[in-house]
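Ribosomal-protein-alanine acetyltransferase
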Amino acid sequence: MTRPASGARNGDSGPSIRPAERADLLAVTRIENESFAQPWPYDAFDRFLGEPGFLIALEEGEVAGYVVADVTRNFGRSLGHVKDIAVHPDHRGAGVGSLLLSRALAVLTAHGADSVKLEVRRSNDRAKRLYRQFGFEPLRFVPDYYGDDEDAIVMIRKLG
Ligand SMILES: CC(C)(COP(=O)(O)OP(=O)(O)OC[C@H]1O[C@@H](n2cnc3c(N)ncnc32)[C@H](O)[C@@H]1OP(=O)(O)O)[C@@H](O)C(=O)NCCC(=O)NCCS
């Protein structure tokens, strides 16, 4: 981990992180809609309730961001997957995304993941910088992954 698990940059106590609850999902969906051209619908988040890697960041009681990550068994190995991460536009650049990613990686490690992968748009420099800071390396391109002509970069890092 290249950054300590703290979101505090301005001397405050920073956001708190907890598992997602159904009552969070409207706020989550709103942030998702503001963050992505092809947002996940409400039901997609609903399916991940109870997943240990579905975490919420709270700032003053409000949902400031979230991450969705899980672990799958594949040929005897446990692969973590960060499926979605977003921070409300008003809260970006303050460490919330780093804190969410850090906690998600800790959950994946605790659930036995040997490595973790994610997909990121080739043009998403902000997210790519975040992932590189956390030790993710590009593995391969997936042409037209998003169905709008843009490639995804699959990034991967080892855990543990
Ligand atoms: C990507 C995202 C989750 C990062 O969350 P965040 O809370 O802003 O991230 P942090 O404040 O923890 O910043 C972490 C790193 O991200 C990068 N970053 C953050 N804001 C940035 C900016 N304005 N310009 C360039 N890089 C930036 C930097 O590498 C930063 O580290 P640094 O501050 O030490 O340089 C957030 O920008 C977001 O929700 N984007 C829209 C959704 C999205 O693209 N999700 C990723 C899909 S793969």
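thats it. The pocket of coenzyme A is lined by residues 35, 85-87, 92-98, 120, 124, 126-127, 129-130, 133 (CB under 6 Å). The two ends are 10 Å apart (CA to CA). bye
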